[in-house]
Amino acid sequence: NDLARLDAELVDCRACPRLVEWRERVALEKRAAYRNETYWGRPVPGFGPPDAAMLIVGLAPAAHGGNRTGRMFTGDRSGDFLYAALHAVGLASQPTATHIGDGLELFGTRVTAPVHCAPPDNKPTPVERQTCRRWLDAELKILQPRLRSVIVLGGFGWQALLPVLEDAGWVVPRPRPKFGHGAHVELTGRTGPLHLFGCYHVSQQNTFTGRLTPAMLESVLSDAARAAGL
Ligand code: SF4
Predict the structure, then answer these.
(1) Structure confidence by residue, pLDDT tens digits, 183-203
(2) Of all atoms in ligand 1, which is nearest to the CA of residue 15?
(3) Mind telling me which Gene3D superfamilies this protein's record contains (predicted)?
(4) Sign of torsion, CA 70 75 78 84?
(5) From CA 66, how far away is CA 119, in angstroms rounded?
(6) Which residues of 78-102 are buried (b: 16+ CB within 10 A; e: fewer)?
(7) Cα 115 to averaged position of ligand 1 atoms, centre (Å)
């Protein structure tokens, strides 16, 4: 399918010199706990079915998470938090995500990021966000006919996504809606309405401090799933 073709192209991308250098260096140096593993060290594609009605947009893969395992939010604490919540609301086949081939399946939901390579300090530059945008544009176009809701985890993803939605034909109000946890905006578009939800990112800064609790995340996931007809 088109999405599989897109993902196959994406994994060969080397458009951002700083990120290519970083993702490959991390993959060679490794974290002690994973020294016997072969890191992925390449762009990490979105994960989930091509006919997803709901999309979750994060920030970028983690150095020892997605950059190690090759799958979004897989093999790190952020992912443990996200997939446990997805499982709790019936959108994932299991609460854990450890490696490709672990049996995890998402139902009607896809997880992606506006930047597909792990950045130093989890901070991509605006230029890198802009460079990677072509992949999000293309992914959105493929998902568009069935897409009914999007959850954006954090302000970076929100900033990145709004122009992409606009270019894909959804009407984004002016001034542009602000990111916040619990933000909910309904956009109109030629393929039907799209419900956009804001949620704090599942990073450890938020989940360890209780700024984002499992109940808060599950509540946004349930609302967005309902809006998507899942
Ligand atoms: Fe390519 Fe995106 Fe990775 Fe940059 S961040 S190298 S555009 S996949």
Answers:
(1) 999 999 988 999 999 999 999
(2) 6
(3) Uracil-DNA glycosylase-like domain
(4) positive
(5) 11
(6) bbbbbbbbbbbbebbeeeebbeeee
(7) 6
For the cut 90, the answer to whether the pLDDT of residue 117 exceeds it is yes
Tally of domains in the chain: 1
| Residue 223's CATH number | 3.40.470.10
Please give the single-letter amino acid code of residue 110.
Answer: R
Ligand 1 mean position to 40 CA, how many Å?
A: 14
Report strand pairing: 184-187 vs 194-199. antiparallel
Alpha carbon nearest to ligand 1 atom 7, residue: 132
In whole angstroms, how large is the CA radius of gyration of the chain? 16
Residue ID of nearest Cα to ligand 1 atom 4: 16
Centre of ligand 1 to C-alpha 213, Å, is: 31
- At 90, the pLDDT band (50, 70, 90 cuts) reads very high
Average pLDDT rounded to a whole number, residues 86-110: 98
| pTM for the model | 0.97
User: Can you read off the two tokens belonging to residue 54?
Assistant: 């709901």
